[in-house]
Amino acid sequence: MLSSVIMAKKRGSRKIKVSEANKTFFSKKDIIYSFLGALILGLIFILNGAATASELKIGKIILILIVTFLIIAFKVYVNSYRKVREKHNIKYFELLGIRLATYYAITLIVSVYLAYIFIDYATLKLGLLDMIKVIIVVSLPCALGSIMPMLLKKF
């Protein structure tokens, strides 16, 4: 959808430079740094996450999920959308959709990986709901870790 906006502007009287259009997308380096940040911060919280998550109720789990999405949305606005020079060419919700999906996918991949490696579900006798709770609880620090390299790059 974003590329169709750029192509439409190229056909019109006002042209967008390719370098400005590419600033809105990820580089491979950004994605790798996000994976490493999520992994490092997730490692700190994974061992306490199983004990904490099994005791939490569904309402608190949903609150953690909402806070995770809000943190990522705030990061997208602060670091990505504010840098776009021509805001009429790229809408915030288009950029938010791409970035939110990418960051949360990174977060879930790392959370599932850490939960699979470090938590022995058979010994702890955790059910499917408890496994999902652990993944959601660990996804909050992983989300913070995935956006941390972008925040640090600013300074």
Descriptive overview:
This protein has 155 residues and is an all-alpha fold. It has one domain. Helices cover 80% and strands 0% of the residues. The chain contains 7 helices and no strands. The longest helix has 28 residues. The chain starts with a helix and ends with a helix. The N terminus is likely disordered.
**Strand portion, in percent?**
under 5%
Bulk shape: elongated
The helix-strand sequence is: HHHHHHH
Q: What is the number of independent domains?
A: 1
Q: Structural class per helix/strand content?
A: mainly alpha
Helix count from the secondary structure assignment: 7
Gyration radius over CA: 18 Å
Low-confidence stretches at least 5 residues in length (pLDDT < 50)?
1-11, 13-23
Question: How would you describe this structure in keywords?
Answer:
155 residues; mainly alpha; 7 helices; disordered N terminus
Topology:
Blueprint: H1 2-11, H2 18-22, H3 28-55, H4 58-80, H5 92-118, H6 121-124, H7 128-154
What's this model, at a glance?
The protein is an all-alpha fold and 155 residues long. 80% of the residues lie in helices and 0% in strands.
